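Quick one - first record:
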Amino acid sequence: MAQPNSLRASRGTPSTLIFGNRLLGGIYELLTSQDLWRRHSAGLLEHGRQSDVRSMHTVLDLGCGPGESTFALAEELGDAVTVHGIDKHVAMVNRAQARARRLACGNVSFAVADARRLDLASSTVDLVVGHSFLYLIPPADRDAVLAEATRVLRPGGRLVLMEPNADGSVLASLRHAPLRQAIGRPVTSLRFATSLVLWRVVSGISGRPTRGELARRFAHAGLESITITPTLGNLGLFAAGHKK
């Protein structure tokens, strides 16, 4: 059976070249396994607070990579909530699973999955999140991914993504005090600054979304009460919406 053009093309995307490569995947994990990115990943919850955290049971982390965001969310939410991380790259999922075993973390799970066709029943997930995920999806598939995320959300559940901002500027972002302070810390500055620059380079190749695109795609997926909030000195955008 012939494969869709977007699927064939995705084999040569930055996502596949980096996350599907053992060496480059290891470098990515090294750069992003740090408190600054971990705290920023946990910030996804701040934009999902309209979902009643006390009644949450299941969270889905799209494009989890080696699990940095998944573990950050699991730590914030506690043992009563299970956070499921999915990624299409076997190498990334293997890294996340190995880390879960080392940490003996019982409220996370990881699986190789296609975000366009989730193996989950409709209306079964309380919160769907993704940290720097959608920009790696070919533009032709982004609506399908958001439609699937909305399908698995229970009524009242929320979708929250953090994506690179097409209108952001690295130089302008340095006027943002928290970002300046983070880069100025000797211990973390090199790793954080390197990961930030590479994030901008790769996202520039893949196609960073604009505020308008995120709002439009969220609305097209059937989400309501959509908010788009700048972060990281306007280099990134938190996009959130809820399912009626």
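second record:
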Amino acid sequence: MAPFLINICGSAINAIVNNSLLDYGGDDAIASVVVFNRYVTVFIFVVIGICQGMQPIVGYNYGSGRYQRLFKTFWLAAASGVVITSLGSIIGALNPRAIAAMFMQDESQIECAVNCIRITTISFWMVGFQVVSTNFFQALGMAGKAMFLSLSRQIIFMTTAVYPATFLRSRRRVELLPHQRRAGHDSDRDNARRTDSKDKAGIPS
């Protein structure tokens, strides 16, 4: 039941994020997030491999009551996961253009992907600890805690960040709209004056 709910919630969050990206960033923003997801998947798979090696050791020590070895295994796996995701954050922050160029050719899309990778890799280093913690509780048979930790990143943190950000962005666009209209009217008025001056002077436009 827990993996089913996690997949359902993950699909719902992806739909919300993609709609927001399409409204405020267009196709380039969606393509940039796809590039980021492909990049970080490499490091996530390494962390998942660490978790798969941790789970039988944690489960055995939990069942036999060897809690010291249990927590030692957990902290070793958590530290390894954080090192892996931190490495991904550092590489993404230092060389985002090379990462984007592996998946894109259009320069405007690459520029958008560079900004996306630089911003999103700021907090990616913490994902390693979250993934290890989720698998730790799952190995102990605590499905409720594992599901809460897995969904907290997608529902609690991501959703609460997406909606305020889109609201502020839309509010900023509404505030800029009168200024843009005024600037457009001023530009039209200047063009009309130039045309009248050329007509009076007999200069063909």
